[in-house]
Structure formats: C-alpha cells, structure tokens
Amino acid sequence: MSAESIRLSEKAKTQLITLKRRTGIQHWNVLCRWAFCVSLSEPSSPPYETIPNDSNVEMTWKTFAGSRQSVYWALLKERACQDGHELTDAQLLLVLRLHIHRGIAYLLNKPSLGDLLKSAAEPSDKQINV
User: 36-88: per-residue pLDDT in tens?
Assistant: First the structure.
C-alpha cells in the first residue's frame, strides 16, 4: 500500500479546514491520523459509503503514516480483519478511507483542542489487539 495515495472528499476537506482553524494543527496528515485513531476506537465498523475523490487533498501512505508506518499498517490490517474485510490493497485502502472520514466527523464534534487532547488521554475500555 505504500505507493497508494489517499484522496479525501470535498466534504472532508471542508471539515479539515474547520479542524485546522479550531486546533491550530496545520497539517492534513496529522489530523487524518487523529481521525483514523478516533474512528478505530469505536467498536462498530464505519458504515460503508461511496466516498467521492473530489477534493485536492491527497497524500501518500508514507505521508499519512509518517515514521510509524508499521504501527498504522498493523492497526489497519487488524481492524479490517476484525470487521471481516479481505486484506487486499484495495480493501485496506477502502477501510482506511472509511475510518478517516468517520473520524474527521467525530473530531468536528469536539469543540476545542483541549477536548481533543483530553479524549486522547482518557483510558479506554476498548482495545485493539495488534
């Protein structure tokens, strides 16, 4: 998947612009990592939807995952497996996009950076085995 590019929808781009303004976090990939992790923390699978590739927000797997590529890759594969997806590159990209888009929507419901940090620091009963 390392060569794959992750393109977000125009709706997600607009939501990320709002998140950038609220949090002061200026990089799409950082916000998308947070969104991915927030979505993974939910026990339910993100609902399947056709997500349009209609924005200019695009990043490679390397840009998305940064120096922790193996960690994000393992989390993605484990969750895809738990949710019954095939572990093909196409399916993993779909699962990744679904989680990022759902997570962005969740992050929008947090009114401030302080709330984001607080929720990130709270211990969770939910556990993903890696």
Answer: 999 999 999 999 999 998 898 899 999 999 999 999 999 999 999 999 999 99
How far is residue 84's CA from residue 102's CA, in Å, rounded to a whole number? Answer: 18
Neighbour-count burial for 10-27, b at 16+ CB within 10 Å, e otherwise: eebbebbeebeebbebee
Candidate CATH numbers 1.10.1220, 1.10.1740, 3.30.70, 2.60.40; the one for domain 5-121: 1.10.1220
Entry pTM: 0.85
Question: Are residues 96 and 36 in contact, defined by beta-carbon separation less than 8 angstroms?
Answer: yes
